[in-house]
Amino acid sequence: MEGVRDALGPQLDSKHLNRKRTGDAFRMSDARQRTLSTSGESLYQVLSLEKGCSHDDIKKSYRKLALRFHPDKNPDNPEAAEKFKELNSAHSVLSDLSRRNIYDSYGSLGLYVAQQFGEDNVNTYFMLSTWWAKVGLHLCECSVTCSTSFCKGS
């Protein structure tokens, strides 16, 4: 495990990996999976809130926790500085109504898609990612391919 950890550097640490091995593959911890999930729960957990909370609840919880974990109040605690960064990130998403709606619907994957393709294109991206849309596009592709090969044969 140490050789793998040395080879991949900061990507592998005990925070992100369980100590259990399945064959040669490592399983990610629940915390790491939550950051990549589509459930939309982890930012609310960072601020100690429930998913349906109000904007005022977000503001109150953020202020309370930001004062508690502010790096100036905890100069010798690097964990507090890391927690403060997480709080700022969670607050920036949840306080913006558009980004919060995307996060509630699609989780952190939705935020990533919004960053890559724009907030207006998130619903389109996920609609085109469904199995029936892929089948429909494949059928359209096949019909075009078949019709062009038929025309060449005449």
TrEMBL record:
Basic and acidic residues bias spans: 13-23
CC terms in the record's Gene Ontology section: cytoplasm; membrane
Keywords: Chaperone, Lipoprotein, Membrane, Palmitate, Phosphoprotein
This protein's name: DnaJ homolog subfamily C member 5B
Membrane topology: Lipid-anchor
Name of the gene: Dnajc5_1
One Pfam family in the UniProt entry: DnaJ
Subunit field text: Interacts with the chaperone complex consisting of HSC70 and SGTA.
Keyword Chaperone: yes
Domain J: 42-107
InterPro entries per UniProt: DnaJ_C_subfamily_member5, DnaJ_domain, DnaJ_domain_CS, J_dom_sf
Organism (species): Liparis tanakae
Region: Disordered, residue numbers: 1-23
